[in-house]
Amino acid sequence: MKAMIVTYGCQMNEYDTHLVQSQLVSFGADIVDSVDVADFVLLNTCAIRGKPVEKVRSLLGDLRKIRARRPLVIGMMGCLAQLEEGQQMARKFGVDILLGPGSLLDIGKALESNERFWGLAFRDELHDHVPPAPAGQLQAHLTIMRGCDHHCTYCIVPTTRGPQVSRHPDDILRELDSLLVAGVQEVTLLGQNVNAYGVDQGARVGGYPSFANLLRLVGRSGVRRVKFTTSHPMNFTEDVAAAMAETPAICEYVHLPVQSGSSRVLRRMAREYTREDYLRHVADIRKHLPHAVLATDIIVGFPGETEEDFQETLSLYDEVGFDSAYMFAYSPRPGTPSYRHFDDLPREVKTERLERLIARQKEWSARKNAAKVGTIQELLLRGEAHDSGFLEGHTRGNHPTVVPKAVGVTGPGVHLARIEHATPHMMYATLVDSAGNALPELPKLNPEAAALTAPLAMA
Ligand code: SAM
Ligand code: SF4
pTM, whole model, 2 decimals? Predict the structure, then answer.
């Protein structure tokens, strides 16, 4: 079987794609990256906003057309699969396999079945399942919990991914070990609300560490860099900032979604913290990590958001001085409390506020990134950049960065670099040694020599 998974949405979906992909490989499937050669196409869907849902609808339409011409198994997994909205779509487009986020390990049963297979249960075995480490990658995700116990009024995730279940620390450390053995250098711990890690297990015998202590454990494992996402301000404790400061492997990068700078809007969103609470968390982070890189998520145009509320979001942005932000116009999602109870603002109002917020973000990102010019940063280089002769990677603070290759550094790895130039979205750097001296540039091949060596390199 030639199988292809198309992934929409967040890092949790990327992790789940890897999990299902490795199951498919264990059943003998070849993973391909073109629909033209696939005989099984599985869409890993996102339901957080209307746009990704529409993308899935359109791709399902295309797949149905392909199936009219040749045999093709069509599958759908992820958040949209768990919703009535997605299931209606699946019926309309003749989806053969549908797996909700809690039923991913049913993929084998689904492929064996001769009939349409729909798996929508939240199965316990997913939590202790350790997928094989991704081959040849320096970077990997590690899910530490699934689901969410919050009920933000705009959000569909608690419906699609179910209640929070923290994975046992032994399973997390077992998975981490396998990543280390495979050569992974940077691990991102994933969950909808990582700061609430263990809270769902209460006083269970055997004990789950707090998130801060889990960070300490993971940080001592020998992994070079650890990041985590997403943090919810309500569960953020100063001990997390302390654990970050005292554990060198934990990167000084905090993604702490604020959603709005107005306490009135935060209350209507049921976020369970105020603007002042959020600013206190930022102060705690800066106390322990004065150079922390801060990123956030913001929703503009939440129902009932006034111009004054929006101004509070802009002023909070200035007060914190975020390094970067993921910004969204509110998207009403059927099944959420805000969809049921509140009226959506006109699209033009949301778009115009989003544009103003993006302009503010660009100003701050430009300022913050410019302050890094001249500093030495540790880069995780993933491989070739768009332009040949360059490598792309990111800093401990998640800044996308490009460097020219140098003698001895022509592929993936972790290296030091001096930032030479910065834009709001990209840093440009030079590779340096541990004393800060630039590494020698690669010798330039003359065009004739290049023409001679090219066929040899391909042979
Ligand atoms: N659990 C994380 C938290 O609470 O911070 C966020 C998870 S959610 C997958 C990622 C982001 O999508 C949220 O932080 C929020 O900004 C955005 N989002 C969620 N629902 C949305 C909606 N209905 N409209 C627009 N943006 C939304
Ligand atoms: Fe959604 Fe709120 Fe849970 Fe995040 S914390 S996943 S925004 S309900």
Answer: 0.94
